[in-house]
Amino acid sequence: MRADLRLPCTAGLLALALAGCDPAAPDPAPVQDTTTVRLGDVAFEPCSLSAPMGNAVEARCATIEVPEDHGQPDGRRIELAVAWVESRGNAQPDPVVMIAGGPGQSALESYPLLHRAFRDTLRNRDVLLVDARGTGGSNLLACRDEEGNNAFTDPEDHSAEGARRFAEACRDQLSEQADLRFYGTADHVRDLELVRQRVGAPQLNLVGISYGTRVAQQYAAAYPAHTRTVLLDGVVPNDLPLGSEHAVNLEDALEVLFQRCRDDSACAGNLGDPADNLAIVLERLEAGGLEPVEYRDPVSGQWTSEVPEYGHLAALLRMYAYQPAATATLPLLLSEAREGRYQSLLAQARMLMGDLGDSIAHGMQLSVTCTEDYPDLQDRPGDAGTVLGTELLDFTRAQCEAWPRGKRAPGFREPLATDVPLLAISGEFDPVTPPRYGEAVAAGLPNARHLVLPGQGHNVLPAGCMPSLAAQFFESADASTLDASCLERLQPVPPFAGTYGWEP
């Protein structure tokens, strides 16, 4: 905040807590001090938000106490971690609220990686962040192994039975600190409404990312009067169980990527057909019996040894598919693996799985998935012939058999029906939440628009001119007036043709 107590008209939500502002006061550089500032009845202290490979963001942080079970307000209470990133300009009273994905990601930890995507928004609006219960600083529900690391499954047993045993151990561990039935979307939605009331914001501009789009839709349906705008990035329709179409969506995305390699003479000539390479590598890994491979851990730099397995390939394909810039290297990795050189595949799989384990609170994820999606998960035609097959569904069902389940909110699966201004954005090559999802949610809504960003993957808010378009949307609350022609300049990353990258 400012050392001078004569605040300029740049204080955003702070203006709601103070008796006006001084329009003649200067707008100095945002130098943090130790001043406590109150928004509504919440005291915020200076803090710094940071994430791996992201710049630190100056903010103010607080905790807000809420009932663990909103139906029992006198029962056990938990604290929510909340952060406020202040506008650089004359802020409006309705903040932007970024809702993280996963489920299981921390909003406070994720935000620094997206801070630049909000640079235009922060000219005249504050950004308010709330760690969903069970994530980050809000009674974290992370499943820990014996070494204290956040883990997803038993590393020695990738079977569905192993997943169930892991869930049982995680359940027993976390049940000491939480009633796992009350960490789902409906609970987060009620938390957000309590936070809005506590900080004194009349309305919210919601930005949902991936799973966060489900939360944003549920909040807009429950509290339309307090929802000014909704921006959905990587849209999850309400009627779609999370993960139910991952296998077929990934298959479609891989075929697009592989065709781009076939159409590139350097990629096809140097590396061969990626689909053929994938089939050969997949057959070898599923057969098993390979010798251990030595490679350098991409994070620690230490030499390690590991036997290549199907799980490494599946994790690599699924996680790489989130970003086309990363998938551009897949033809090279598959060509290397076909020749018996698994070092790069193992290194990349380890890095991705480690990053995922550190960023996702798996206990919270299971509380969401097992209550809201598990009852509707079914094998789909064609799953058995895909790279992922039914493995993801089998793992989820096995874990949910051991996990406590809450109650879904009434009308949970009903499509969003609202006249609140809504902007949906999708990446052209996103296999997780493909463009047809965004189109389905926007269709029929009177004040909705869907934009598809060429050549992009999952989470497209930071891409190209999208940050500027988002800020314009928050300002006008009218998606129909946006000139989105600037998005046409976006292009996909060419597929690698060798270890040096792609050819000009």
From TrEMBL:
GO BP annotations of the record are: proteolysis
> Which SUPFAM superfamilies would you find in this protein's record?
alpha/beta-Hydrolases
Q: Which family, according to the similarity comment?
A: Belongs to the peptidase S33 family.
**Where in this chain does the record put each AB hydrolase-1 domain?**
95-237
Q: Which residues form the Peptidase S33 tripeptidyl aminopeptidase-like C-terminal domain?
A: 397-486
Molecular function terms, GO-annotated: peptidase activity
Q: Which InterPro entries match?
A: AB_hydrolase_1 (IPR000073), AB_hydrolase_fold (IPR029058), Pept_S33_TAP-like_C (IPR013595), Peptidase_S33 (IPR002410), Serine_prot/Carboxylest_S33 (IPR051601)
Traced from the root, the source organism's taxonomic lineage reads: Bacteria, Pseudomonadati, Pseudomonadota, Gammaproteobacteria, Lysobacterales
- Which PANTHER family does the UniProt record give? 2-SUCCINYL-6-HYDROXY-2,4-CYCLOHEXADIENE-1-CARBOXYLATE SYNTHASE, TRIPEPTIDYL AMINOPEPTIDASE
Q: Which Pfam families match?
A: Abhydrolase_1, Abhydrolase_4
Q: What is this protein called?
A: Cysteine protease
Q: Which keywords label this protein?
A: Hydrolase, Protease, Signal
The leader peptide range reads 1-24
